[in-house]
Amino acid sequence: MSNTKRNVSVVVFFLLASVMIFSQDAAESPLLEMVKIPAGSFQMGEKKNYEPVHNVAITKDFFIASTEITNIQAAKVFNWAIENGYAKINGDRDYTLWSTGGDARMLLNMYLYEHSNYEKCRIFVSKGKLVSSTNYYGFMPVIFVSWDGAAAFCNYLSMMEGREPAYDMKTGECNHSATGYRLPTEAQWEYAARGGSRTIYPWGDEWDSRYANIGYKNDKYLSVCEVKKFLPNGYGLYDMIGNVNEWCNDWYGDYSAASQTNPAGPDSGTAKVTRGGSWQADSWSSRVARRNSKVTSSITENIGFRVVLPVK
Ligand SMILES: [Ca+2]
Ligand SMILES: [Ca+2]
Q1: Fewer CB within 10 A of the terminal residue: the chain, N end or C end?
Q2: What pTM value is reported for the model?
Q3: What is the per-residue pLDDT across 40-64, written as a single tens digit (0 to 9) for each?
């Protein structure tokens, strides 16, 4: 092949590759990078620790964000909600973000930016808006966000993109047939986090510090870090293990041994599932099957979220 031909081929290849990458992301969301997870079955849980291990079938492909929702993404969506009257900032100095309407919930607590010395919300307030930029830890996952805040983010982003909101903001109930964003079910989360693996961690049975930001000097980050600083799993998802725990859609409940199809958790409960471990966890607590839970109003330094979207 002549040099000219080779150069043309290289250019065409990169053009095609760019178009493919661009359309994969842009087709689903202008704001988020979404990865399509193929339908399939897996063994959910872990023998002795998270029993009973049971067969779960996920019968539909779904999209999941490749990263935890970042401060920049959260600020953009919540600002849209403020502009459109769905959310408002309370306080002239100790700022919190609330949903509006008859049953307002606290979504995000920026107050903790000022008053927490070891971890910070890292979203500022200026002139009635949330501010997050590349200069101010914008690519770190949003924290100090309640389950209500994570669900509200899903609804606001759905409305921004003309999709049907999945959540009833008064009850928190999720309409699983809506076209909009929602939090992953616990089964979707574990299925996506495993990335096709059946091991204790998505990459194998032993801890490997290249894959996740956890605590206790297992890696070079002492607290939350920007997303995508560690290696992705088999599906190309980052930080499913570590960095921040992730809110799931399900109420926390006991597993049953029966095979399940597209499980969505108990109908009611007292706490929502969180998954994945965080920058504060040890490696044992960062196993892919590890379960945890918090009440919906919890706002902490180690819980964030990512979102899923149904495939049409
Ligand atoms: Ca760390
Ligand atoms: Ca995580």
Answers
A1: C
A2: 0.89
A3: 999 999 999 999 999 999 999 999 9
The alpha carbon of 124 and the centre of ligand 2 are apart by a number of angstroms equal to: 23
Instruction: Specify the DSSP class assigned to residue 271.
Output: S
Cα 306 to ligand 2 centre (Å): 8
Tell me how many domains the chain contains.
1
Q: Closest Cα to residue 256, out of 31, 97, 94, 53?
A: 53
* Residues with Cβ within 8 Å of residue 205, at least 6 apart in sequence: 199
Q: What's the 299 CA to ligand 1 centre distance in angstroms?
A: 20
Please list the ranges in the chain whose pLDDT falls under 50: 1-2, 10-26, 117-119
Who surrounds ion ligand 2 at CB < 5 A?
A: 239, 243, 276
pLDDT at 92: 67
| CATH number of the domain that residue 45 is part of | 3.90.1580.10
CA 204 to chain centre: 22
Distances (CA, A) of 13 to 1, 17, 27: 15, 6, 21
Note the pLDDT of residue 14.
47
Whether residue 66 contacts residue 236, with contact meaning beta carbons closer than 8 Å, is answered with yes
Q: Point out the ligand nearest to the CA of residue 242.
A: 2
Q: Which ligand sits closest to the CA of 202?
A: 2
Ligand 1 center–CA 242 separation, angstroms = 8
In whole angstroms, give the CA distance from residue 158 to residue 163.
5
| Burial class for 82, CB neighbours closer than 10 Å (0-12, 13-18, 19+) | middle
- 181 domain residue, yes or no: yes
Does residue 14 lie within any of the structural domains?
Answer: no
Domain membership flag for residue 221: yes
Q: How far is the CA of 211 from the centre of ligand 2 (A)?
A: 11
Answer positive or negative: Cα dihedral of 221, 94, 98, 76.
negative
- Give the range of the structural domain holding residue 82, as residue numbers without chain letter: 34-310
Is position 61 within any domain? yes
For position 102, what pLDDT does the model report? 80
Residue 71 contacts by C-beta under 8 Å, 6 or more apart in sequence?
Answer: 122, 123, 132, 136, 137, 138, 139, 140, 141, 142
